[in-house]
């Protein structure tokens, strides 16, 4: 009697599990396209904040390549980078970068770099920095990262690519130096990566670049 009861309950439980799995799978399949489209729009919004539509006429989401550099970009896995072009001419690129020396771990970001090697913009995508202190690198909390716009390897000099506490030119936050120090160093390394891999990123040979200057 007890065995029959256990078997019956097990059968009902199994049917319930199959039914629930079917509902979840059906819901996922029916919404997968919408989810992917929403992710694409979110990515595009982030890219357009750095290189606005007025500066390019291609779809950056479709003009991509991959990068897996851990030395200068700090990446732990292969990621995409994006190109912006206007009438076929290279305008800028948006590179992924990770600052591994944040206060509480990795700080993932994207760094936009113009064709002349200057910073177009920076956005922190994810971090675990201290709320109210280190999280000021998040654009939703402050626009501190806009201080990088227009900077390049020669502006300021390499020795000045640091926060003011380290005798550089970039502000740190009150009560938090480690986070802005890490982001500043990561942005500088992204510029070094761009400079070292300019031909691959832009798709333009050096002689052609000079001919446009």
Structure characterization notes:
The chain has about 210 residues and is of the alpha+beta class. Helices cover about 40% and strands about 20% of the residues. It contains four helices and five strands, in the order αβββββααα. The chain has helices at about 1-50, 180-195, 200, 205-210, and strands at about 65, 80-85, 90-100, 105-115, 120-125. A five-stranded antiparallel beta sheet has the order 1-2-3-4-5. Mean pLDDT is about 85; it is low at about 210-213.
Provide a brief overview of the structure:
Helices cover 38% and strands 21% of the residues.
Describe how the helices and strands are arranged.
Elements: H1 2-50, E1 64-67, E2 79-86, E3 89-102, E4 105-114, E5 119-126, H2 178-196, H3 198-202, H4 206-212
Antiparallel strand pairs: 1-2, 2-3, 3-4, 4-5
Keywords:
213 residues; disordered C terminus; five-stranded antiparallel beta sheet; 4 helices; alpha+beta; 38% helix
């Amino acid at each position: 009697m007890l065995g029959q009861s256990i078997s019956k309950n097990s059968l009902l439980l199994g049917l319930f599990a199959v039914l629930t799995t079917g509902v979840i799978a059906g819901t996922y399949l029916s919404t997968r396209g919408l989810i992917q489209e929403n992710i694409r729009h979110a990515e595009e919004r982030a890219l357009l904040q750095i290189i606005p539509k007025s500066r390019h006429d291609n779809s950056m989401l479709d003009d991509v390549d991959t990068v897996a550099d851990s030395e200068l970009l700090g990446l732990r896995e292969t990621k995409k980078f994006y190109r912006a072009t206007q009438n076929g001419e290279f305008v800028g690129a948006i590179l992924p970068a990770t600052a591994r020396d944040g206060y509480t771990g990795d700080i993932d970001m994207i760094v936009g770099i113009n064709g002349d090697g200057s910073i177009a913009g920076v956005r922190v995508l994810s971090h675990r920095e201290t709320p109210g202190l280190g999280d000021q690198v998040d654009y939703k909390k402050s626009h501190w990262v806009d201080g990088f716009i227009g900077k390049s390897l020669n502006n300021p000099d390499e020795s000045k690519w640091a926060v003011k506490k380290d005798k550089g030119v970039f502000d740190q936050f009150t009560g938090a130096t480690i986070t802005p120090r890490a982001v500043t160093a990561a942005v500088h390394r992204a510029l070094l990566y761009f400079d070292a891999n300019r031909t691959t990123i832009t798709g333009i040979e050096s002689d052609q670049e000079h001919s446009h200057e």
